Amino acid sequence: MKKLLSPAFVLALLTIAISVAHCSKEEIQQNLITRAMTDGQWVIQQFTENSQDYSSEFTPYVFQFYENGQVKAINGSTNITGTWTGDANARTIKATFPSVNNTLQRLNDTWQIFNNTLTMVEANPTTPSRSAYLKLVKK
Length: 139
Hints:
This protein is of the alpha+beta class. It has helices at about 5-20, 25-40, 100-105, and strands at about 40-50, 50-55, 60-65, 70-75, 80-85, 90-95, 110-115, 120-125, 130-139. The longest helix is centred in the first third of the chain and has 16 residues, at about 5-20.
């Protein structure tokens, strides 16, 4: 006996197919970056600059990224708001924390991602004169 597909199931498949067909590869990649970054909180596991380790300065901070381009550095009850953008094609993420302490100012740059998973990002600044390393991990 043959089982027929329900109209609701066929409609759902058709909707998914149309949605995927209308999204470019770039849009899909961009959406994946946004979803990965905004799903949960992040901590800086390691940060070095000019061979000096600044990782411990970031220990009090937890970072929450939002789809609207905001990022919050949360230190206890203190929230410091900055901005972020991700570029899937260039494999970069840019962070800006205006008028903040030296620790968060270290993040103000465009970062070239050279290794990542859904729960970890490793990056170096794109600024040629700057030698730094950033490792973010999902909390």
